[in-house]
Amino acid sequence: MHRALVDRARQGDGEAFDALARVVGDRCMAIACRILRDADLAEDAAQAALIVAWRELRTLRDPDRFEPWLHRILTNECYAVARRQRRWSADVRKLPPQDQADSGEILTVNDRDQLERAFRRLTLEQRTVLVFHHYVGLPLSEVADRLDIPLGTAKSRLHHATAALRASLEADARTPSASQERLA
Amino acid sequence: MTAPRDPDLLIRAFLAEGQAELPDRAYDAVRQSVDRTRQRVVVGPWREPRMSTVARVAIAAAAVLVAAIVGFRLAPSSNVVSPGPSSPTPTASPSTSPRPSASASAGPLAYAWPRTLAPGSYSTSLSWDPFYVFRFTVPKGWESRDIEIIKSDRMALQFYFVDNVVVDTCTETLKNPPIEKFPGAVSTALSKLVKLTAGPRTTTVGDREGTYVEFTVGPDFGCAPSEFRLFKLRPGTCGEGCGGLGPPWKGLEFGGVQEHNRMWILTVGRGHVVINAVWTSKATAADLAELQEVIDSMRADTPNATEPPHPESISP
């Protein structure tokens, strides 16, 4: 669907790439937000990914694979941004909920809090598989391809991530606030 | 009694929450980076991901054999003289000492159309063919378009492949059989269409043999200016939906006014490459001096091969 813009951008057309970025940028932000759980970091990662995509666009062999290719770049940028956050801060910023009506009736406040804590205990790699599978809606084979990991690794990461989140939903009590939440 | 809840549904609902819009400031920052960042050029066969070591070594060896970069200066040989002084024209003779080449770290590709070029050095592929790259330096006021850079609607520098020549400047009827791929074929055909004011003269540009000509067209074109034709150009390869390329013809550049042309026609294995300086009678002496500066700044990077690779080996 973006083939024409990708083709033009590969020839150095900055206007075409700008238009392309505006088509895919929001989705990049959404994915990065959900991986990093921090809007500022996600913005940095999405912005960096788009710039890298422009610079490396001529290395993209198949223009129809632009989005998967971009998502791989985005994932790497998310990891890089997270690594630059050297230590966990007690000021954990929650993402402002949006489209509350879509999920508010499903999630209770307690659910949301438990899931947030559990999610932050996941590794970045586990979060990434979870986001691409459950949020972006990709089958695991496509997730593995997009992240350039073996299918078995994708399955394993998804299994552990899902198990951890399910366990948090089944917990009877909140965990102490000094729990070890990880960015990387 | 509450119904059991689906953990996967809850997880999806949790993931559905959150910011989903990239702020405008990020888009602006990306745009600024695009304007000042050159795309990495890939020349040669594509590499497969996770290539074996053997394949990597083989390809590297082939690249060393084939792709030696040759920089050359766009200045005709000394036997070219400038035309009579009836009107100011850029000189064809090279300066006595070679000008320093444009910065090796050229700026963004010029072929984003239309785009105003900030003063500086640029590289551009020839008609979207990444195998032929020209570098040049422009001052303020130049703009890039599909096959050219242009200033003030009075002067332009164009780069294109010629596929064939028309038999009449007011038709699109092409020479049959098409022009052959030997030096002088284009200029010979051109001399039957327009009155040459200089040349054809054999010249060598870098490692390429070429022909140099000068001619003027108009104001009497014999047909509507929009119908005037000289060459059929090689179509661009930028793919479907690549609007704004324009029809693949070389005709008039500035509409219905008299145009002066200075043309270097290089013969390469796949055909004829043209570098064409065009200006109108409204161009001032300062304009022409500036055009000459841009011409003098040109460098070309082409593989030092007797025959460039066929299109199939170059990815679009």
What would your notes on this structure say?
Chain A is an all-alpha fold and 184 residues long. Chain A has nine helices and no strands. In chain A, helix 2 crosses helix 7. The longest helix of chain A has 23 residues. Chain A is elongated, with a radius of gyration of 18 Å. Chain A starts with a helix and ends in a 14-residue tail after the last helix. In chain A, 43% of the residues are buried. The C terminus of chain A is likely disordered. Chain B is an alpha+beta fold and 316 residues long. Chain B has five helices and 14 strands. In chain B, the strands form two sheets. In chain B, strands 2, 5, 6, 7, 8, 9, 10, 11, 12 and 13 form a ten-stranded antiparallel sheet that branches. In chain B, strands 1-14-4-3 form a four-stranded antiparallel sheet. In chain B, a hairpin with a 2-residue loop joins strand 8 and strand 9. The radius of gyration of chain B is 24 Å and the shape is elongated. The interface between A and B is large, with 63 and 52 residues.
Task: For this entry, give a set of tags.
heterodimer, A: 184 residues, mainly alpha, 9 helices, 68% helix, disordered C terminus, B: 316 residues, alpha+beta, ten-stranded antiparallel sheet, four-stranded antiparallel sheet, 14 strands, 18% helix, elongated
